[in-house]
Each structure stands twice: as C-alpha cells, then as structure tokens.
Amino acid sequence: MIERIILELGPWGWWALGLVLLAAEVVAPGMFLVWIGIAAILTGAVSLLLWEASFWVWQVQLVFFALLAVVAVFVGRRLLAGSDASDEPLLNQRGARLIGRTAVLEKPISEGRGRIRLDDTTWTVSGPDLPAGARVKVTGSSGGRLTVESA
C-alpha cells in the first residue's frame, strides 16, 4: 500500500506531507513538527532529482526521511536553544521582580516573620526583628516569602 501511494504521488507526496506537518505546527505550536515538515519537503526535493534512480525505492526514501527528520530536529533545537531570552525574564516570577524595592512593614518582624504591602499585595517577609512602620528593602525571594533587611 505504501509503495503504491508513493509511486502514484511521486515526489509531490513528500511535499504534501511536509505542508500538512507545517500546517499542523500552526494548529499545535511547539516548534517540533516544523522540523519534520522541513525534512519531508527536503525528501521531496531529493526525490525530484533521484526519482528515476533504481536505488531510490520507497524503503530508501522512508529511511532517508527518518534520518533527515532526526537531524533536522537536533539542528533546529540547537538553533533555538539560545533564543529563549525574553525582554522580561522575570515575567512569571513575581517575588523576584520585587527584589530591590522598599516598603514599610505592615506588621512587625518578630521571630523572623512579618508582613509588608507592595502594590496591591500583602507579602510574608523574613528578616531581622523590626517594628511595624520600619522601612525595609527586599533582598530575596523564595516561593511566596520575601527576604528583607532594614532600609
């Protein structure tokens, strides 16, 4: 069955598969199917050149496609490995974004724990014992707790 489909569609079958995979990448983005789609399109391009060659049977085409897909995925992942940099690296790290800010203690720090209000959120803080109303500077963040020192 596979042989018949490949023989009937010729190299254009690989191109169609590549376009279907690229379209699937648009529907389910993840930067994975794009590399396999590119491998299918390149297999179709090579098939255009080698279609009449006696060794270019469908089994060889599938092996070539599989190898090319693996190489394309590895090369693509390597190319995109350093592109995760964001213009807002602390976007989803609320506590880390507060480091360096100053605030007034809402509740005193006693036995290492107190509370401050920053913007519209009340935060649990840890640090040296200080009275309510003292100014503190945020020096660290761990989970939902901020570390502060006297400002």
Can you characterise this structure?
Helix content is 46%, strand content 23%. The protein is of the alpha+beta class and 151 residues long. A five-stranded mixed beta barrel has the order 1-2-3-5-4. Helix 1 packs across helix 2 (11-27). The longest helix is centred in the middle third of the chain and has 23 residues, at 58-80. The radius of gyration is 29 Å and the shape is rod-shaped. It starts with a helix and ends with a strand.
- Average pLDDT, rounded to a whole number, is 88
Strand order, main sheet: write it out. Answer: 1-2-3-5-4
Overall 3D form:
rod-shaped
Radius of gyration: 29 Å
The secondary-structure class comes to alpha+beta
Strands, count: 5
Distance between the termini: 76 Å
DSSP summary: helix tally: 5
Helices and strands, in N-to-C order?
HHHHHEEEEE
Describe the sheet with the most strands.
5 strands, mixed, barrel
Report helical residue fraction: 40-55%
Strand-residue fraction? 15-25%
Give the low-pLDDT segments.
Answer: none
